[in-house]
Amino acid sequence: QVQLVESGGGLAQPGGSLTLSCAASGSFISIGSMDWYRQTPGNPRELVAGITRDGRTNYADSVKGRFAISRDNAKNTMLLRMSSLTPEDTAVYYCNADATGTSYQGFKDFWGQGTQVTVSS
Predict the structure, then answer these.
(1) Which residues pair with 92 in a beta bridge?
(2) What is the Cα–Cα distance from 109 to 114, expressed in whole angstroms?
(3) What is the pLDDT of residues 37-89, one digit of tens each?
(4) Cα 26–chain centre separation
(5) For the chain, what percentages of helix, strand and coil (3-state, to nearest 5) are there?
(6) What share of the chain has pLDDT > 90, as a percent?
(7) Are 68 and 59 in contact (CB under 8 A)?
(8) Nearest CA to 66 among 6, 119, 120, 15?
(9) In whole angstroms, how far apart are CA 13 and each of 46, 58, 78, 90?
């Protein structure tokens, strides 16, 4: 089993910055791709950014140039540095990771509990 814990959410003003963290722990062989998703009430969960184990990244068009995703494979952690925040960035942000384990074949998908980000004046 893999546990993912998000942290770093909170309140920011428009134009401000926040950095989110995701830490993976538990029983697994390795962590593959990791991603950040976000969700607002009544809307589907959407992909914000993703990063492969070797550092290749992708971003949603709405956050390109403002958000930066990174990871530390030795610590099994991932960061999302957010800047130039707008009220439209308000959402619950979720960490997602693919992991190989000892009790299943291939990669299995895991989710964190989420962390709230609120951008308002």
Answers:
(1) 39, 116
(2) 15
(3) 999 999 999 999 999 999 999 999 999 999 999 999 999 999 999 999 999 99
(4) 18
(5) 0, 55, 40
(6) 93
(7) no
(8) 15
(9) 22, 26, 24, 11
